[in-house]
Design brief:
603 residues; mainly alpha; Hyaluronidase domain-like; two-stranded antiparallel ribbon; 19 helices; 2 strands; 65% helix; extended
């Protein structure tokens, strides 16, 4: 009731200032705030987390709005022009205020998502930008309460509440007020999600889901929730622009927890060795990598999708590489103490061994993904189908990884039992990978129609698999999954070698018929424009006269009609010296005419 009275009083004041002949009822503008902002954010950078691009879009949009509304701030000197209720005569004035708030918010988020995080000065600037966003969002809410319809007013209220909650969330203070703001925004979007078209309902539900982690985190900070750290991490894996502040806050909290945990970590255990860790950054990086390894090797690892595991492996590699860089910096700055250098070198070698093991695991995961797509038919989604050559390349990488790990573990004089066992495991894995590589190389030759090579490679793969299987069965702690995989490989190699042998015999039987057919298809000129090389041009190479088995174009003998060729002819002689020769005078030899006496006077 109070809001309606204020609205009516505002309308009376506005009408009193307008001449009586121009008094009309104030129109109510409609702005679908959530849909408008979501569309702009997804189209201009926030789909990929590019807040700088979105800020540039907001600036350009504001420039166009100011110019089209003729609401500029002077040409030479800046003259401030405030936007009030009386100023809003069309809906673009509301867009002006909304995009100004978005520009300030995107600028703050740009600073928040810097690679190394904002420093103290940047954080102060970030909070200032968020305050500016809250100011413009509050003005937008006030204007919509007078000039917007009921739905627009509700959306503006939710938008302003979210901005205020984000500011308090970043300031790490007044968690109860931030919780109240987020809950208010969630209640509005839950109510709005019950009405309107399907697209609007989906957007409102997505917004509610994006606000939920921030609400749970506020409850956790207040102490009204028993939220565990693992649950916070799982919430941080959600996507959406509204969650970026929460993710940054969660990362800072996790880093602080790792720092506290790292204070009690004094040694690193690897392959039966213990290495002291004195650098705090090294301890934090190793702890971060170990936490990520628990996600991959834990009980819930089987439910993780392959793409998620690959992302986790990338994070593990980054953490261990960061630890190695810290160790090598310590090696450079270390004193002449040989004991310290030996400990740091041993720690670097241990982390290198773990990196080698994780690299092998990651490449094995890539092999598993590639195998699942090997026999798959291309579907409507245009999903890439794996070729045998790609698996050969992956097994080449695995062979290189195992060789590097074997060299690293085998180096050194006093080797522990764990190091010897890992070296033996590397040898065994190398035999398995060699057999697998040979098998898929045979598949590659088979798809190219080369039966003899494929048959020989399948036989070689079968013998390699048999040797690896015998060695694995003689080991003390045999891996049953690997034994099963080798038996499958042995059987497939045997069956495929028989198939290739049979196909080779069938093709040999049909060879005369195919040869006569191909010879009959040889043309002098032909109509095919796409010919690699004519038969007359490759007489000096040992190739089939009728082309390869997988050739789709009939071979051609020679180009007909033949192309024009230059023909030699007699040289053209130009007498250039004639004009330069000075010939002798012949006047003395010329016959003179005799003239009479009278003709002398007339001559």
């Amino acid at each position: 009731m109070a809001k309606q009275k204020e609205t009516s009083a505002m309308e009376i004041d506005d009408q009193a200032s307008i001449p009586s002949d121009q008094i009309t009822t104030n129109p109510k503008f409609s702005v679908n705030v959530l849909q408008l902002l979501k569309s702009a954010q997804m189209q201009h950078g926030l789909r990929f987390g590019d807040y700088a691009r979105y800020r540039r879009y907001c600036t350009a949009r504001l420039r166009r709005l100011y110019k089209s509304l003729k609401f500029t701030h002077g040409r030479v000197k800046y003259t401030k022009r405030a936007i009030s209720v009386a100023t809003v005569t069309e809906v673009r004035f509301l867009h002006l205020v909304l995009y100004t708030a978005e520009r300030a918010w995107s600028h703050a988020m740009e600073k928040k998502t810097l690679p190394d995080g904002p420093n103290a000065r940047q954080r102060s600037y970030l909070i200032g930008r968020l305050r500016k966003a809250v100011k413009w969002a509050s003005l937008f809410q006030e204007l919509c309460s007078f000039k917007g319809d009921s739905r627009t007013s509700l959306e503006a209220e939710a938008y302003a509440a979210y901005m205020k909650g984000s500011l308090l969330f970043e300031q790490d203070q007044n968690w109860d007020v931030a919780l109240k703001c987020f809950k208010s925004a969630r209640a509005v979007y839950e109510e709005l999600g019950k009405y309107g078209d399907l697209e609007n309902q989906v957007l409102c539900r997505e917004r509610v889901e994006e606000l939920e982690p921030s609400i749970r985190y506020c409850l956790h900070k207040i102490g009204e929730s028993n939220l565990q750290t693992s649950e916070l991490v799982s919430i941080g894996e959600m996507e959406g622009p509204a969650l970026d502040l929460f993710k940054a806050k969660l990362e800072a909290a996790m880093a602080e927890a790792r720092s506290q945990q790292a204070a009690s970590m004094t040694e690193f255990h690897c392959l039966g060795n213990r290495f002291p860790i004195s650098n705090a950054k090294t301890r934090v990086s190793i702890l971060k990598a170990q936490e990520l390894e628990k996600d991959i090797h834990g009980s819930a690892a089987d439910s993780l999708p392959a793409e998620k595991k690959l992302v986790l492996y990338d994070k593990i590699f980054a953490a261990y590489h960061e630890a190695r860089s810290c160790i090598r910096n310590d090696l450079v700055t270390a004193a002449n103490s040989e004991n310290v250098k030996d400990e740091l070198s041993g720690l670097d070698k241990a982390i290198g061994a773990i990196l080698g093991q994780r690299t092998i695991e990651r490449n094995q995961l890539l092999v598993k993904i590639a195998k699942s797509k090997l026999n798959k038919v291309r579907d409507d989604k245009n999903e890439k189908v794996t070729k045998p050559e790609e698996l050969v390349r992956l097994y080449d990488l695995l062979l290189q990884n195992t060789a590097d790990l074997f060299d690293l573990v085998s180096s050194g004089r006093d080797r522990k039992t764990e190091e010897v066992a890992l070296a033996e495991e590397c040898e065994l894995r190398s035999m398995v990978f060699r057999a697998e590589r040979c098998f898929y190389l045979a598949k590659s030759y088979s798809s190219a129609g080369k039966r003899t090579e494929a048959y020989a490679l399948y036989c070689q793969a079968r013998s390699l698999a048999d040797a690896a299987l015998k060695k694995l069965q003689s080991a003390n702690a045999a891996d049953q999954a690997m034994i099963k995989e080798l038996k499958t490989l042995y059987n497939e190699s045997r069956s495929n070698s028989c198939i290739e042998h049979a196909k080779g015999i069938m093709e040999e039987e049909k060879a005369p018929e195919n040869l006569s057919k191909k010879i009959s298809n040889i043309s002098l000129s032909g109509t095919d424009k796409k010919v690699e090389k004519l038969l007359m041009e490759k007489m000096d190479t040992y190739e089939s006269a009728v082309g390869e088995a997988n050739m789709k174009v009939a071979p051609r003998i020679e180009t007909f009609p033949p192309a024009f060729q230059p023909v030699p002819r007699n040289p053209i002689v130009l007498d250039l010296a004639y004009n330069l020769i000075e010939f002798p005078s012949l006047d003395a030899r010329m016959k003179k005419d005799k003239k009479g006496f009278i003709s002398r006077f007339w001559g």
